[in-house]
Every structure is written in C-alpha cells, then in structure tokens.
Amino acid sequence: MYYCEKCKVKVAGNFEHCPLCSGCLTGDVSKEELFPDIPPEKPRRLLLFKILILCSAIAVSVCFAVNASIAGQSWWLNYVLAGLASFWLVFGIAAKKRENPVKAVLWLSIMASLLVLLWDAATGFHHWSVDFVLPVLYVCAIAATIILALFLCLKPQDYIFYLVLNICFGMMPLILYLFNVLNVVCPSAICAAVSIITMSALIIFKGNALKEELDRRLHI
After folding, report:
1. Residue 153 placed within a domain
2. Which of 105, 109, 164 is nearest to 133 (CA)?
3. How far apart are CA 7 and CA 220, in angstroms?
4. Residues 108-131: pLDDT tens digits?
5. For residue 143, with 0-12 CB atoms within 10 Å meaning exposed, 13-18 middle and 19 or more buried, which class applies?
6. How does strand 2-4 pair with strand 9-11?
7. Domain membership flag for residue 32
8. DSSP E strand stretches across the chain
C-alpha cells in the first residue's frame, strides 16, 4: 500500500500521486491485497439434496427387504414408492419456486390437492381428502400467504393475485358441500368462512390495489 509522508495517510490503489495533496507516494501496491479472499460458499443445498436422496434410497431398500421377507403380504412397498414420488414432486416445486414464496405456496397448494385426491382415489375414496385435508390445506395456504406478505413486507402487487387464487380454492369445499360430496361438513364450513372473511378484508382494506392488480393480470 502506498504512503503519503506529507499527509501521513495510507493510500490504496494504483495512484501516482496522493489524492489529497498531489505529493509523491512511497511504497508498493503490489505487496498489498486490495480485495480479501472470500471463501466459496458451502453448497448446503446440494448437501441437503444428497442427504434426502440417501434417505430415500435407505427407505426403499429397507421396506423392500421387509416386504419381501414376510410371506403372504401384499406389496405395500408400492405405497412407499408413491409416497416418495409425491414428496420429491412437492420438494421439486418448492425448490424451483423458492425465489417467489407466495407463488410457491399457490403451486404447492395446487399440487398437494391433486396428490391427496389421487391418494384417496387409489385407496378406495373414503372422502378423507375432501372432508378434512383439502379444507385444512386451503386455510393453511391463505394463512401462509398473509404471513409471508407481512413478514417479507411485500407490496400489494407482489401477493394480492396469489392470495385471491388461494381464496378461490378455499371456496371449493363449499361447492363440494352444495353438490353433496362431503360426509363431514365442519372443516369445509370453516374453510369457506375463512375465505369469505379474507376476501372481505382484502376488498375493504386493499380494494384499489386489488382492482389494479386484477386489471393488470386479466387485462380487463
């Protein structure tokens, strides 16, 4: 690093004269590192990905060994494989949409809805998906979107459209009730009430922002 005898200061950079007094500098810039070495960031996400793959392989191997060793059992290993496939599908969506958390919540809500309906249908359709899981899922999606918007201090245009879509999904249990699809009404009624209350609050407090965002998104 250069040094100015007159100003008594050290000067970083490749200067020929002191920037304060224009006097001569002493020293050599080549002996001083202007920028510190920054160690590369550890690939934590890659490590987590590898650990999850290893855990999946262990789970499949152990379940296969147990299932194959006990005679007379059905191949319940298929359910393990389907469960792992569902997990990796949801995990992949979450990882891909991680830059936009509220959008990720919407996509996860949609994918989880399809998965639970498929699981219910594959196991004989006992209505547990529409009676319990979907209402709870949509309430959680609405709550998660609101919490993320508040916690991340998002602007209305960054979350309102996704919140409206989650509210629309939250009204689906009410539609199922009207078509007599439900066996248990209470969770769906609570989900519909939460959706209506959230939409009302959105219109009352963010009405202008909601209108502008819908106009922009839908080109009304």
Report:
1. yes
2. 109
3. 67
4. 999 999 999 999 999 999 999 999
5. middle
6. antiparallel
7. yes
8. 2-4, 9-11
In a domain, 68, yes or no: no
Q: Which residues contact 21 (CB under 8 A, 6 or more apart)?
A: 4, 6, 7
Helix (H) or strand (E) holding 135: helix 134-151
**43 in a structural domain:** no
Residues 6+ apart with CB under 8 A from 86: 115, 119
Mean pLDDT of 87-107: 90
> Residue 11's beta-bridge partner residues?
2
Which of 24-38, 70-84, 198-212: highest mean pLDDT?
Answer: 198-212
**What residue type is 17 in one-letter code?**
H
**Range 131-139 average pLDDT:** 96
- The predicted pLDDT at position 45 comes to 75
Crossing angle between the packed helical segments 101-122 and 156-170, to the nearest 10 degrees? 20
The pTM of the full predicted model, rounded to 2 decimals, is: 0.74
E strand or H helix at 10: strand 9-11
Residue 213: which domain range?
120-218
